Each structure stands twice: as C-alpha cells, then as structure tokens.
C-alpha cells in the first residue's frame, strides 16, 4: 500500500512538471488507485468534490473567500455534502464507519475541489483520470513481474 502511495506521488509530480496540470493533488491519485476495484466510490468522491466546488463558488459571489479559508470551506462542504447525501440515500450509520455511500477519505474531495478552483473542473478531472490510469498500469505491471506484492 505504501508503495502505491509513493509511486502515485512520483507520477503526480512528473505529470505536473510535464503538463503544468495538477491531478487533484499529489497524494489523491495514489489513494484513488487503492479503491480502483470500487469505481462507484471513486466517481462518488469526484461528484462530492464537484458539488463542494460549486457550493463554495456560489458563496464566493457573496463573500470574500480565499486562501486557507477557501480550502477549509471546500473540505467542510465536501464532508457536509457527503453527510447529506448519505442521509438522503438511506440514513447515517452511528459511527460513520460504513455509510450507505462512501467517499475516499474525508479530505480527498476537498483537496480535489481545491485543485478545481485553481485550474477548472474538466482539467482537474481529466488529469486525475490520466494519472490514475498510468498509476494503475504501473501497479499491474509491477505486481505481475513480482517487483511489488
């Protein structure tokens, strides 16, 4: 698992240096690949990030939101959006450990949304998909050759 995260950071940095596009943060692609067997969870995480992005964008029309406050609001609204969707979809489990619908980490959608604020939804989503694909391909090759377990 740690190898996937480190490899994800390296591929994210190389991708950023080559394209000047951030794939949703340097740690996010590695975390997404850990859940590659559950694509609905990956899409849901991305959808929550997009929702939080648009909520904060609407709020910024009325309030001055920038810097650390914007980042904190993106994380808070991604979490609140997840809680609301989970409540609507079938109730919240008491300890939040196994909700009906689940995101990948509670901060990951906020990190993705923060990158969406900087470079746009389409560029961030596509660069995230490309880096996750490259990373998954590397993981498959490394596991089949026996380099990674």
Can you describe what's shown?
- The chain is an all-alpha fold and 149 residues long.
- It has one domain.
- The protein has helices at residues 2-19, 28-34, 39-62, 67-90, 108-119, 121-144.
- α1 packs across α6, α3 (39-62) packs across α5 and α5 (108-119) packs across α6 (121-144).
Architecture blueprint of SSEs:
Elements: H1 2-19, H2 28-34, H3 39-62, H4 67-90, H5 108-119, H6 121-144
Features:
about 75% helix; about 150 residues
- Mind describing the biggest β-sheet? none
- Helix and strand element order: HHHHHH
Shape: globular
Our estimate of the beta-strand percent is: under 5%
Short description:
This protein is mainly α and 149 residues long.
């Amino acid at each position: 698992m740690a190898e996937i995260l480190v490899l994800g950071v390296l591929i994210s940095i190389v991708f950023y240096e080559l394209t000047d596009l951030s794939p949703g943060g340097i740690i996010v692609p590695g975390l997404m690949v850990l859940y590659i067997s559950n694509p609905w969870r990956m899409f849901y995480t991305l959808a929550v990030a997009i929702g939080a992005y648009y909520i904060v964008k609407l709020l910024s029309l009325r309030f001055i939101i920038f810097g650390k406050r914007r980042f904190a609001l993106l994380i808070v609204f991604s979490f609140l959006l997840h809680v609301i969707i989970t409540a609507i979809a079938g109730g919240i489990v008491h300890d939040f450990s196994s909700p009906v619908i689940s995101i990948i980490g509670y901060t990951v959608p906020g990190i993705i949304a923060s990158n969406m604020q900087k470079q746009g939804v389409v560029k961030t989503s596509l660069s995230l998909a490309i880096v996750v694909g490259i990373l998954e391909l590397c993981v498959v090759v490394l596991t089949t050759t026996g380099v990674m377990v």
